[in-house]
């Protein structure tokens, strides 16, 4: 608590101090954590809304901290972005995830009626601005033998708002190679819909808030109109629509009726270890 009257006698807020120390402690621990292999990746399936098949997964990084246990990305990604460690960390996540996708593809063999399992990886704006992004991605795809078509890089809508051509250039190059670019958290960033034509994206990931508004059946008519409008605009621009945060069958059904293509959420599976994704996809492929 702050003491009244003047800065000179201000008392420290012990809770704020603890938070600051943790933040500071976590920040300084990040580089060694990467070297010691304390990060790991969970995978959450991406499910085709039309037929329920597993088409791929999103890679979500976690930190197994020796004192604090498993930390969610919201706790440390902003710190890694602040210090620049996000560049090597992001490269590690990309390489691990693409390797994992390769392993799934090999184990599935001929079961791939709907094409090889795909992998979605989050990109931070700092990685976008880093000159090595395109070459690193090309190298990783070549080393693993994964087709560019099987990779989707997710960039948040807010990272691309007002992005100039220099920032878009690497995304454009990746997109020309066949890598899909998804606009993450779409609908939260007040972007001009007409602006979409300028961006090298092929997937819109509708923010979880839209899914939440589909909780009631039937949903609020205005919410339905909004999602319907976004989906039809997206499809008219040749973009696929993925929905996040699907927690109930009713949500899945409404979003399917509205024409969304792919879904992700606890209703299907929580993020989990790679073996789990393999099981889900295999069961699905063999009936
Ligand atoms: P995001 O990209 O929007 O990822 C979706 C988040 O929603 C994940 O949280 C996921 O676990 C959570 N989620 C999935 N299904 C449901 C559901 O049905 N209900 C609810 N309530 N939540 C659901 P997570 O794993 O904590 O990740 C948080 C954010 O951290 C991600 O948001 C992403 O922005 C960032 N992130 C994760 N991994 C990476 C990474 O490797 N690199 C970068 N730059 N960012 C990452
Ligand atoms: Ca994402
Ligand atoms: Ca493609
Ligand atoms: Ca998202």
Describe this structure in words.
This protein starts with 13 loop residues before the first helix and ends with a helix. The protein is α/β, with parallel strands linked by helices and about 290 residues long. Helix 1 (about 15-35) packs across helix 2 (about 75-85) and helix 3 runs parallel beside helix 5 (about 135-145). The protein is globular, with a radius of gyration of 21 Å. The chain has an eight-stranded mixed beta barrel with strand order 1-2-4-5-6-7-8-9, surrounded by five helices. Helices cover about 45% and strands about 20% of the residues. Mean pLDDT is about 90; it is low at about 1-5. Strand 2 (about 55-65) and strand 3 (about 70) form a beta hairpin. It has helices at about 15-35, 75-85, 85-110, 125-130, 135-145, 155-160, 165-175, 210, 220-235, 250-255, 275-285, and strands spanning about 40-50, 55-65, 70, 120, 150-155, 180-185, 205, 240-245, 260-265. One calcium ion binds near residues 58, 122, 154 and 184. This is EAL domain-containing protein.
Structural class: alpha/beta
Oligomeric state, counting identical vs distinct chains: single chain
What is the ordering of alpha helices and beta strands? Answer: HEEEHHEHHEHHEEHHEHEH
Residue share in helix: 40-55%
Average of the residue pLDDT scores: 90
Gyration radius (Cα, Å) is 21 Å
| Biggest pleated-sheet summary | 8 strands, mixed, barrel
User: Which sequence of strands runs across the widest sheet?
Assistant: 1-2-4-5-6-7-8-9
Number of helices: 11
Unreliable residue stretches:
1-6
* β-strand number: 9
* Shape designation: globular
Report the sheet-strand fraction: 15-25%
Could you give the distance between the termini? 61 Å
User: What compounds are bound to the protein?
Assistant: ligand C2E, calcium ion
């Amino acid at each position: 608590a702050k003491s009244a009257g003047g800065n000179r006698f201000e008392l420290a807020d012990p809770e704020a101090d603890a938070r600051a120390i943790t933040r500071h402690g976590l920040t300084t621990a990040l580089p060694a954590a990467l070297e010691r292999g304390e990060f790991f990746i969970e995978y959450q399936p991406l499910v085709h809304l039309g037929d329920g098949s597993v088409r791929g997964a999103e890679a979500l990084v976690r930190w197994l901290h020796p004192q604090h246990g498993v930390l969610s990305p919201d706790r440390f990604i902003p710190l890694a972005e602040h210090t620049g460690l996000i560049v090597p960390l992001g490269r590690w996540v990309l390489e691990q995830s693409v390797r994992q996708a390769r392993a799934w593809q090999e184990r599935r063999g001929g079961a791939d009626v709907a094409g090889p399992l795909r992998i979605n990886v989050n990109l931070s704006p700092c990685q976008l601005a880093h000159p090595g992004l395109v070459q690193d991605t090309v190298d990783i795809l070549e080393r693993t033998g994964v087709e560019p078509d099987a990779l989707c890089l997710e960039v948040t809508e807010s990272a691309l708002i007002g992005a100039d051509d220099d920032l878009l250039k690497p995304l454009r190059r990746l997109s020309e190679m066949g890598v899909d670019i998804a606009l993450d958290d779409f609908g939260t960033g007040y972007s001009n819909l007409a602006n979409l034509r300028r961006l090298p994206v092929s997937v819109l990931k509708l923010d979880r808030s839209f899914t939440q508004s589909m909780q009631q059946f039937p949903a609020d008519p205005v919410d339905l109109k909004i999602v319907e409008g976004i989906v039809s605009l997206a499809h008219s621009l040749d973009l696929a629509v993925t929905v996040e945060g699907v927690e109930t069958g009713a949500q899945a059904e409404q979003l399917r009726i509205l024409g969304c293509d792919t879904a992700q959420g606890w209703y299907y599976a929580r993020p989990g270890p790679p073996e789990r994704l393999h099981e889900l996809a295999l069961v699905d492929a063999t009936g």
